[in-house]
Amino acid sequence: MTDTRTANLIAARQRASREKHAHTLHALDRLLHKGARISFTTVAREADVSTWLVYNNPELKQAITDAIADGDLVGGGQ
Fold it and tell me: Average pLDDT of the chain?
């Protein structure tokens, strides 16, 4: 019984992680479409997730870093 409960808890945690990941990428897209200035903090706030998540998830960190770099190129480094 404990193994089933543990497996269910692990599965629920993994689902929640995937949902936060997807939600954060959607938040980044929304900010880009709005023309907002992109930073790790603004993305985390828009997605209602921790800054720890956006800094420590390699895919999210790369997406945000790329968006910041693209904004610098488009905005002339401002």
Answer: 91
**Closest C-alpha among 53, 51, 45 to residue 27:** 45
Yes or no: say if 60 and 54 are a contact pair by the CB < 8 Å rule. Answer: yes
Does the CA dihedral 18-24-30-32 come out positive or negative?
Answer: negative
Supply the angle between the helices 40-47 and 58-75 in degrees, to the nearest 10: 120
pTM, two decimal places? 0.82
Q: Which residues of 35-55 are buried (b: 16+ CB within 10 A; e: fewer)?
A: eeebbbebbbebbebeeebbe
Please identify which residue in the block is written with the tokens 């720890």.
Answer: 52
CB 11 within 8 A of CB 21: no
Q: How many CB atoms lie within 10 A of CB 12?
A: 10
Q: Would you give the distance in Å from CA 60 to the centre of its chain?
A: 5
